[in-house]
Amino acid sequence: MSSRGFRAIIFDIGRVLVRIDPRRSQLGLVQGLTLTPEELWSAIEKDPNWQSWQEGRLSPLDWHLGLTKRLGIGLDFGQFTKIWNSALDPVPILPDSLFERLSRSYRLALLSNTDPIHVAYLESTYSFYRYFPKGGRIYSCKIGASKPDPLIFREVLRTCRVQAHEALYIDDVSAYVDSARALGLAGIHFRSPEQLHQEFASLGISSLECYST
Predict the structure, then answer these.
(1) 76 and 154 housed in the same domain
(2) Where on the phi/psi map is residue 208: left (φ > 0), alpha (ψ -120 to 50), or beta?
(3) DSSP sequence for 12-36
(4) Measured between alpha carbons, how far is 209 from 201 in angstroms, rounded to an integer?
(5) For residue range 89-102, what is the model confidence (pLDDT) as tens digits?
(6) DSSP E strand stretches across 20-166
(7) Which of 98, 88, 70, 57 is nearest to 206 (CA)?
(8) What is the mean pLDDT of the chain?
(9) Helix axes 116-125, 60-71, angle to 10 degrees
(10) Do 138 and 157 reside in the same domain of the chain?
């Protein structure tokens, strides 16, 4: 246990553990689309069904059919799934050695606004998942709520079996960190691996040996 008394460390996934790079997405290469990768991803996140998709009220098939129709592109579900996942960089941001070290002293959990297609890809692709128990993987599409809704934060505390003051939350979105803090969690606004190491050091969490790779 650290000097702050933390028992659980909770990580966001996108842009903390896994890079989301619209330039990697092959969706922009589909014939007939004229948007830049960044414009395309922004348009997708503004889709009227986006929140329902993220919170599990829309099936993968319905998301595929609705989005491809709106964009005017012809992709079968298998092609769409492959392209949908192509924006996720397979090389993780943080080293596995960090999670191996942290798992010796803390309960580790994931808390992410994400969808069923990405969940399947993430869990089958990234080796860091071995350090996160299945019960501690909290996804908006499984809970039916997304950050910054307090419900999703309370769910991760419940699964970790800790009180808010015993948990540290890490996210690249400052508003979500603020939401966690409002509920009593400690929070780190993630900007880089080096900055995270410095934040850990200030909290008495040892991670120095994990940033040599």
Answers:
(1) no
(2) alpha
(3) --BTTTB-B-GGG-GGGGSTT--S-
(4) 12
(5) 999 999 999 999 99
(6) 107-112, 137-139
(7) 98
(8) 91
(9) 110
(10) yes
Cα(90)–Cα(71) distance, rounded to whole angstroms?
26
Residue 113 belongs to domain with CATH number:
3.40.50.1000
Lowest pLDDT segment from 43-47, 110-114, 156-160, 192-196: 43-47
Count other C-beta atoms under 10 Å from residue 53's C-beta: 23
Q: What is the pLDDT of residues 46-78, one digit of tens each?
A: 999 999 999 999 999 999 999 989 888 888 999
Backbone region of residue 7 per phi and psi (left: phi > 0; alpha: psi in -120 to 50; beta: other values):
alpha
Tokens describing residue 33: 């689309």
**Strand pairing of 167-171 and 137-139?**
unpaired
Based on the fold, state whether residues 149 and 99 are members of the same structural domain. yes
CA distance 151 to 124: 27
Q: For helices 77-85 and 116-125, what crossing angle results, to 10°? A: 60
Q: Average pLDDT of 178-205?
A: 96
Residue 176 structure tokens:
């979500």
